Carboxymuconolactone decarboxylase family protein (Massilia cellulosiltytica), 181 residues
Amino acid sequence: MARTAALTPEHVPAESKPTLDAFTKNIGFTPNMMAAFAQSPIAFNAWATLLGALSKALDVKTRDSIGLAVSEVNGCNYCLTVHSFTAEHMARLPAADILLARKGHANDPKRDAAVQFARKVIETRGHVADADLDAVRAAGYTDANAMEIVALVAMYSLTNFFNNVFDPEKDFPAVAPAGSI
């Protein structure tokens, strides 16, 4: 059950309204997470700025795969529904690849290295081994790309934590736990 209410349009703080309106126009509806997050213009706009900047990092399949892996580790059911939906409909990942990403892997070797590295970052709270960094570099990622992966892990963790704390009502199709598939 939701621990905070999603805002109705007339109750959105003026400082959050342009950002929320842009998301609503882009997505076609206002996700409950965003309607709840908009209560804090500072946090919401900071997250939206980070999301916008990181949408230029790597490719969409890799970004969504990282989002799935991080959300699985963090146990964020809301984000798993969102990332499963976007991975299927925007990144065009098949169902088997979505499940594989949730388990920290990918069929594509380069993407697999990025997803494994992201999973190591979240599982170790950034205390990765030299071998982990060497593996992502060996797959063809630069240090700048590795930094982008770390930033994606942090951004996805932010929404994971927000959703785990405030538990907005899910508005994307439910997904089964990865262990039961």
